[in-house]
Amino acid sequence: MSIIYDGHAYCFPDPSAHGGFDDPAEFHRHLQLFMAHARKQPVWRKRDRTPSGISGLADVSRPWDFEGLKEAQFRTGPHGLVEWTVEGEDYVKQALPPWTVDFSYPPDSLVADMDYAGVDRALLHRTPYMGVSNDYIADCTRRFPERIQGLAYVEEWLIRSAPDASIQKLERAINDLGLSGLQFLPFHMKLYGQTDDWADSEFHPFWDEVARLDIPV
Fold it and tell me: pLDDT tens digit string along 155-177?
């Protein structure tokens, strides 16, 4: 019997947990950067709904650059909105669907959408602006083991400087948490001033462990 498998799905907690980052500011930098440049959704001035843009949130000439972010009291709001303030004026962007009440998308919501769309199983991905916690993804899979699988995530920009800790995080995600593979996004390394050459010798111990674990990437 064939099944319908969604190989690119997401669940994410509300931002109050700071995405599992040790430094909340680092999580919010990732969130602000993504919401400024990746979500091509409507932006408006809050008081009168006049259409606007993201120039108060980030330098549009420096996309995907932490240094291009502007201090604008960036924050998440209700119903899928992100908000920021420029010279006392509030702006909003409809970053997520309005039914995303608290800026989260838990596994029960995903499964409800899967039921509605006729999807049998889904694979959860992970990106820093949604958090770096493998425990959260593992909890989603434990709640719906017949419906949801999850990929492990290891911060790409830490693999060179902290190879042992990166390997330990991967091993725990696979062996202890039961995740099904690794999601690897090389472009994140450039955000931290690194080359995105993920095949250089500094990565060899990490990739050797991926091979030993025999997991997909």
Answer: 999 999 999 999 999 999 999 99
Q: Which CATH number fits domain 5-14+102-213: 3.40.50.2000, 3.20.20.140, 1.10.10.10, 3.40.50.300?
A: 3.20.20.140
Which DSSP string do the residues of 160-199 spell out, in sequence order?
TT-HHHHHHHHHIIIIIT----EE--TTHHHHTT----TT
Q: Which of 173, 185, 175, 188 is nearest to 135 (CA)?
A: 173
CA distances from 164 to 4, 159, 204, 217 (A): 38, 8, 12, 19
pLDDT of residue 200: 92
What's the sign of the alpha-carbon dihedral 160, 163, 67, 102?
Answer: positive
Whole-model pTM: value is 0.92
